[in-house]
Amino acid sequence: MTPEPPGPSQLLNRLRMRQVALLLSIEELGTLHAASATLGMTQPAATKMLHELEDALGQALFDRIGRGLQLNDAGRCVLAHFHGMQGTITALSRELKAIRQGSAGKLFIGSIMAASPAFLTQALIRLKAQYPLLAVEITVATSDRLLELLQQGALDLVIGRLTSASPDDYIFSPIAQEPLSVVVARDHPLAGKSRVKFAALLAYPWILQPRGSPMRDVMEQEFKTHQAPLPKGLIETASILTTTNLISQTRMVAVIPQSIATRYEHHGLLAIVPYALSHQLEAFGSILRRDRPPNRSAAALMALLQEHFGD
Question: How far apart are CA 231 and CA 223, in angstroms?
Answer without folding.
Answer: 9
